[in-house]
Specification:
The structure is a single chain. With 255 residues, the protein is of the alpha/beta class. It contains 10 helices and 10 strands. It folds into 2 domains: 172 residues, P-loop containing nucleotide triphosphate hydrolases (Rossmann fold), CATH 3.40.50; 64 residues, no CATH class. The strands form 2 sheets. Strands 6-7-8-3-9-10 form a 6-stranded mixed β-sheet, sandwiched between helices. A 4-stranded antiparallel β-sheet has the order 2-1-4-5, covered by helices on one side. Strand 1 and strand 2 form a beta hairpin. The longest helix is centred in the last third of the chain and has 18 residues. It is globular and about 50 Å long.
């Protein structure tokens, strides 16, 4: 489904993205307390927990939008804690947002092209890559449509396509299934699996739809009140009594 980016084979391999003992305060309120996380190339790691557990804050830490009081972020063993967000994205640390943020007045093609331009590609190369990505994702027929006129599910996919155009080594996805129906969720599952497999891209996947998390992820990390409650395989997390009590409830048994 997903083709390898031209020139991607020339980028040095980065095998892991790591958060080490991070602490974040918001005006005296402890939002994240001593959280560590490891995401490996080609792996899909689910990050789950109740609202307010610190999931989006942790993505903001990883991408450089949220400074930390203690701890570090490392990519391939290199400390990137002081790197600006654009420096991280240009080196392959890319995110999608919880809210769909298309350039509504631009076409679908121009939206995806913008991802390539953002990492320094020339317009011609960025456009050619955008065409390939839209074709891979079954959106080529919508290339010339303004993003603001497309259905919600297709706009979600364009946001993911724009992230792919940024040639991610690690892709951080904040609730990409929010607002999607069952058919669209099935399509999303296939797209994300394709990204991880074809690009050898590590994916951090925040999602409240547990059926999708347990079907898609290789491992799951659970946050509660800014702390790590558990980390393990989907089977381990599904059967963990502390996780069931704190978050999953009986939903886990049905997944």
């Amino acid at each position: 489904m997903m083709s390898t980016h031209p020139g991607e084979q020339h980028r040095p391999t980065v095998s892991s993205l790591e958060v080490d003992s991070v602490v974040v305060d918001f005006q005296g309120l402890r939002a994240i307390e001593d959280v560590s996380l490891t995401l490996r190339s080609g792996e899909i790691l689910g990050l789950i927990g109740p609202n307010g557990a610190g999931k989006t804050t942790l993505i903001n830490v990883l991408t450089g939008f949220q400074p930390v009081m203690k701890g570090s972020v490392q990519m391939g063993g290199v400390d990137i804690s002081d790197w600006k967000p654009h420096e991280r994205s240009r080196r392959g640390l890319v995110r999608t947002f919880q809210g769909v943020l298309p350039f509504a007045g631009l076409t679908a093609l121009e939206n995806v092209e913008a991802g390539g331009v953002a990492i320094g590609l020339g317009r011609r190369e960025a456009r050619a890559e955008a065409v390939r990505i839209l074709t891979d994702m079954g959106l080529s027929a919508k290339a010339d449509r303004q993003a603001g006129t497309l259905p919600f599910g297709e706009v979600r996919r364009i946001g993911i396509a724009r992230a792919i155009a940024m040639r991610p080594r690690f892709l951080l996805m904040d609730e990409p299934a929010a607002g999607l129906n069952d058919v669209e969720c099935s399509e999303l599952h296939n797209i994300i699996r394709g990204i991880a497999a074809r690009l050898n891209c590590g994916i951090l996947f925040i999602e409240h739809r547990m059926s999708l998390v347990f079907k898609l992820c290789d491992r799951v990390q659970v946050l509660q009140l800014g702390r790590t409650l558990a980390v393990g395989s989907t089977t381990q997390i599904r059967n963990d009594p502390n996780v069931r009590k704190a978050y999953l409830g009986e939903e886990a048994a049905a997944c």
